[in-house]
Fold this protein.
Amino acid sequence: MHKAIIIDDERLARNELKKLLLEFPEIEVIDEASNATEGIEKIETLNPDLIFLDIQMPGKTGFDMLQELDRAPHVIFTTAYDEYALKAFEVNALDYLMKPIEPKRLADALQKLQQAEEKELANQQVFNRGLLTENDQVFVKDGERCWFVKLSEVRLFESVGNYAKVFFAGNKPLILKSLNALEERLDEKTFFRANRKHIVNLRMIEKIEPYFNGGLLLDLQGGEKVEVSRRQAVKFKEMMSL
């Protein structure tokens, strides 16, 4: 059974979708919200597996809302945008349903949910209280481009004032989170605070070299070089049993 929340500013659209979902007993609609702020509140309290999310809403858009979530559930967008316009958004959502929603397309989208969950089950990790595991996806938005990024694909977080630059694949968007706030949420078995400005993914290290003053220099898979401060080098060596 999947718990779902419908987030859409049009009551008629929410009712229509609820009616269509009656055909899918594996989906239980536990709540609905009419705007992004309400949506965030309900997602954080009720922790759904799935959200049906409208993109265009008064105030904050569906994308703005996703950006504010710590951990994103599965997302199926319900929108009046046409397919062409959606190509601009590099969001790894399960699916985009065009309004008015066709039952066949809804069935296809829910099939994708099933496949995604089976994949996750294969590499399931138990959530620590509030900790993000490497299988968690975070939502990143940079201008018009948006991504869901699996934490295991992030090589490096770099501090830029109150922001952090997120390095994954060929991208380096900024997110409005400080490095200290990130460090609290990230699993230290995977992510290591190398110095004041950097948190590195230990699995993305290709080479470790000695560096000035007892520090270390890490070569990452993306070609970045990150210094481990002397104080952190002691901790790093203990962790890696060097």
In short: The CA atoms of residues 120 and 135 lie 8 Å apart. Confidence is low (pLDDT under 50) at residues 122-129. DSSP finds seven helices and 15 strands in the chain. Residues 103-122 form the longest helix (20 residues).
